[in-house]
Amino acid sequence: MNNRQLLYALLVAGMSLGTAWAIRGQFGHEQGAAWAGGIDGLSIVLIAKRKDWYAKAFQLALASAAGWGVGGIISYGKVVGFARGLEFGNVYYGFLMLGIIGGLFGLIGGGLFGLTLASSREKPVRWSQLITEMTAGAILFYYLLIEQLGWLMTPPRSEAWAACLGMAVALFWYMIRHKQHSAIRLSIFAGLGGGFGFAFGNFLQVMGNVSGIHFNFWNVMEYSIGFFGGVGMAYGTFTSEWETTDAQASRSGLLAPIVILTLIIPFIVWDQSFKTERLVETIRSFDPLADAAGITTYIQWIALLLVLSFAAYGVFKYYIRSNAPLSELRYEGIQLFFFLNLGLYTIYSILITCAFMSLYRIEQYLYILNVAILGFLVKKTQASFSDRGLNLSRWAINFAFIIAIFAILTAVAISTHGELNGANRRFE
Predict the structure, then answer these.
(1) Tell me: the pLDDT tens digits for 228-266?
(2) In sequence order, what are the residues at sequence separation of 6 or more whose Cβ sits closer than 8 angstroms to the Cβ of residue 289?
(3) Rounded to an integer, what distance in angstroms lies between the CA atom of residue 398 and that of residue 418?
(4) Bridge partners for 326 per DSSP
(5) 3-state secondary structure of 250
(6) Which stretch is the leader sequence (predicted)?
(7) How many H helices and E strands in the chain?
(8) Has this prediction a pTM greater than 0.90?
């Protein structure tokens, strides 16, 4: 029974981040990843159904958003192309590097989420110290690996992966020093899930392109990193021990996370994505006779008003409405916020692709189906917790196993196609 509960919990968490990360493909960069990461953090809180976690649901969502979002600075378009070639070395390199990039997303996202879970009055996380150390790690690793050693992953694109690696190392050094073992476990599994999901997703994309089926297989790759990253993050959470903390939230600590999650992140997505030129080009691509300029104006205003309404509602319901110094957040309120957040992200995707005008982007309607399934599953799913501790030898075996799987995927991929469009070479 416990294993079945865990499998249902992993499925819901995987679908939550998978759907959000696939939607993130329309927006990209840090802000898109942050929106998706926040949704995943909320899904784990809902699945856990621990009342003491409700009190810091917004802080947990913000930590997950920050962690997954920072990985958005990494460029991986060229790396995806390495895995579309014909030479074993180049393709295998592509899969391995995608594993590292996806792993960095998960390591940082899972680590910050885990530390927020573990933080308590008796054992608080020193966030200012941690952020300073991670910033220093980013600078030092980038300078050493890129400027001094010249270890370029994706030339001539940005090599910001080195900065993220420095952040991850600093994050782990902090967790090790402060004996945050549960957060370490969570971070490791989120990294394993994200790394495997990214490489496996690109394999699915290659196979999909070879099949000749007309579908957005890039989106399949994005769903894969999100699904397996969400599964890894949830597994690390539900197989670790967490102390019981206060069941009430400080009202003063709610405002900043709510504003960032409902206004700042969505507004940046709106500002950076709903460009007039992009929307006009999209509309004219499937309907040259449409009033593209007029439709674009409507889309921009609707998207902006949705963000402002979401932010106003969030601040009113979860902050202003509670006049007491301490606020008791309930499951129903967090569930409502989760679906409003995911729903708005889904609407944004449909608006930016203009899928409400044409069926040319069929995957957009699969997002709606995913949200509907989550609406059915979330309330019925409750995770079972266990404490499986740290097992470095088993993790090393798992890591070696994943690397071996990448070699198998490479062999299969290069045997099924000729040179694909978008193929890149790292080594001559």
Answers:
(1) 999 999 999 999 999 887 767 677 788 999 999 999 999
(2) none
(3) 32
(4) 250
(5) strand
(6) none
(7) 17, 2
(8) yes
